[in-house]
Design brief:
Blueprint lengths: L3 E2 L1 E4 L15 H14 L3 E3 L7 H6 L9 E7 L11 H7 L5 E7 L2 H8 L3 H17 L3 E7 L1 H7 L1 H13 L4 E6 L6 H11 L8 E5 L6 H11 L3 E4 L13 H10 L1 H4 L2 E2 L4 H4 L2 H12 L16 E2 L2 H9 L17 E2 L7 H11 L8 H16 L7 H11 L8 E13 L5 E13 L2 E9 L2 H11 L11 E10 L8 E9 L5 E8 L2 H19 L6
Parallel strand pairs: 1-10, 2-3, 2-9, 3-4, 4-5, 5-6, 6-7, 7-8, 8-9, 11-12
Antiparallel strand pairs: 13-14, 14-15, 16-17, 17-18
Helix pairs in contact: 1-13, 5-7, 6-7, 8-9, 14-15, 16-17, 17-19, 18-19
InterPro entries: 2-isopropylmalate_synth_dimer, AIPM/Hcit_synth_CS, Aldolase_TIM, Citramal_synthase, LeuA/HCS_post-cat, LeuA_allosteric_dom_sf, PYR_CT
Keywords: Acyltransferase, Amino-acid biosynthesis, Branched-chain amino acid biosynthesis, Isoleucine biosynthesis, Transferase
GO biological process, one term: L-leucine biosynthetic process
């Protein structure tokens, strides 16, 4: 059976750049383009040539080898000839082999925003497409606010799509710009458009303001559209765009779509999807969404003991696809709900050999339940759990002992009269009966403590040079000034990219932080194979 081809168009570098709190550098854009190219999407839209010097520099040379590098621009302005329109000239002058022009398709916007006639807007669409096609570019028209325009004046919205296609546009993309259209509406309207523009030339560009951008994209595919626009991890202005890390595996792994359609993504690239998603978050310097479909750390995590037992017998019971197909992994969480099945499954994953009849397993189960009653949460701190388990089984050597630490926070006026807060920490560690004391300042007590602890750790100093703390979370577990505090620290080995989570719990936030820091260093030394004592 011949399957229809679905083309994937990524707008991360333009739509994603409009995300609150995200600002791509030139190097960021180059890295993201490389990630997308390696993944295998069909088009990578690089931004708007002429909009700023950085985008000009980005388009100075090709940034993809497999994907079609695409420039974004606007259709010809009213009252200006096509040859004198600077926006069109900049887009066509970018050198990108494909171009995508945004066009007004809602009659209200033509009147209010463009302040021109409906016919003049259609003529601008036609002339822009013809000029791009004549320049040898694969040409797309992104019909802005198409679904709102169709609801207000279906004849005019259809005329915009028909004009673009008739002028030679390879793709006519229907954009749900404010993200307010529902899947049943998208499917009905795209079906109507497919009567005047072949589905093989139709695309969908969905925003996620009702949380249904993925569903709307799939609805458009069912109605005939064969191009999907989206972003990595669903970033974009307001609530984001259709998430390609959800759409790609759905198209490739779900029978309703995999049997009818094919994409340009190879199976081995699909198996790298989780790594791609997390590498992108690393570029953005933000923590990955643990609950993201397919690629999140919790996407294949099970907590309850009864479910864990079922998973061990038959993974298909609770997993809609195999975790490995998208580069993720199964996690049977260890918590106060855990039974031996959870522990055995997690220990097996960690490579800890233990007989299920060993009484130490009962000891570990009791310790987990006791500690979680005090506020620990090992389901979120796999490294601390592994250390607890190995210590219970006598498998963690002692690398160093902390004899004492002291933290001082001083608020004072500096020499020029500015009010400043200074944090200083002193840590005394013992390594092979040799005592080392380190002092450090930081931008807070925990930062100062971390710097002092890692300033001089003797023979292990080179080993922790690649240790980086990438996230720090504090949660108050009960009210009042004497509340129990839980600290979670995410660490990374910059040499290998490996990440791990450690935990500390105490009435004192500094003490909880210090315990998590010590666990992080101990875990890294353990994984590096040091014997300790």
């Amino acid at each position: 059976m011949t399957r229809d081809r679905i083309y994937l168009y990524d707008t991360t570098l333009r739509d994603g750049a409009q995300t609150n709190g995200i600002d791509f550098s030139l190097e960021d854009k180059i890295l993201v383009a490389r990630l997308l190219d390696d993944l295998g999407v069909d088009y990578v839209e690089g931004g708007y040539p002429g909009a700023n010097p950085m985008d000009d520099a980005f388009f100075a040379e090709p940034r993809t080898t497999r994907a079609t590098f695409t420039a974004f621009g606007m259709t010809k302005r009213a009252g200006v000839s096509i040859s004198n329109d600077p926006g069109v000239a900049a887009t066509l002058g970018s050198g990108a082999p494909a171009v995508c022009f945004v066009a007004k398709s809602w009659d209200y916007h033509v009147d209010v925003a463009l302040k021109t006639t409906l016919e003049e807007n259609l003529d601008g669409i036609r002339q822009t497409v013809e000029a791009a096609v004549a320049a040898g570019r694969e040409t797309m028209i992104d019909c802005e606010h198409f679904f709102d325009g169709f609801k207000a004046n279906p004849d005019y919205a259809l005329a915009c799509a028909r004009t673009a296609h008739g002028a030679g546009a390879r793709w006519v993309v229907l954009c749900d710009t404010n993200g307010g259209t529902l899947p049943e509406e998208v499917e009905r309207i795209v079906g109507e458009v497919a009567k005047v523009v072949p589905g093989s030339h139709l695309g969908i560009h969905a925003h996620d303001d009702t949380g249904q951008a993925v569903a709307n994209s799939l609805a458009a595919v069912r109605a005939g559209a064969r191009q999907i626009q989206g972003t990595l991890n669903g970033i974009g202005e307001r609530c984001g765009n259709a998430d390609l890390t959800t759409l790609i595996p759905t198209l490739m792994l779900k029978d309703a779509y995999a049997g009818r359609f094919e994409t340009g993504i190879a199976p081995d690239a699909l198996a790298s999807l989780t790594a791609t998603s997390r590498a992108f978050d690393e570029i953005l310097n933000r923590a990955p969404d643990a609950h993201a479909p397919y690629v999140g750390a919790a996407a294949f995590a099970t907590k309850a003991g009864i479910h864990a037992s079922a998973i061990l017998k038959d993974p298909k019971t609770y997993e809609h696809v195999t975790p490995e197909s998208v580069g993720n992994r199964r996690r049977v969480l260890v918590s106060d709900q855990a039974g031996k099945s959870n522990l055995l499954a997690e220990l097996a994953r960690l490579g800890v050999a233990i007989d299920k009849a060993d009484p130490k397993l009962d000891t570990l189960l009791r310790l987990v339940k006791e500690r979680e009653a005090r506020g620990f949460s090992y389901e979120a701190a796999d490294a601390s759990f592994e250390l607890l388990a190995r210590r219970t089984f006598g498998e963690v050597p002692v690398f160093f002992d902390v004899d004492s630490y002291r933290v001082m926070v001083e608020r004072r006026f500096n020499a020029v009269g500015d009010l400043v807060t200074v944090s200083e920490a002193v840590v005394k560690v013992r390594i092979d009966d040799e005592i080392r004391m380190s002092v450090a300042e930081g931008n807070g007590p925990v930062n100062a403590l971390d710097s002092a602890l890692r300033k001089d750790i003797g023979k292990y100093q080179d080993e922790i040079a690649s240790l980086e703390l990438v996230d720090f979370k504090v949660r108050i577990l009960n009210g009042g000034t004497g509340a129990i505090t839980r600290v979670l620290i995410e660490s990374m080995d910059t040499r290998t990219g490996r990440r791990w989570m450690t935990i500390g719990v105490s009435e004192n936030v500094v003490d909880a932080s210090f315990d998590a820091l010590v666990d992080s260093i101990t875990y890294k030394l353990l994984k590096n194979g040091h014997a300790g004592r």
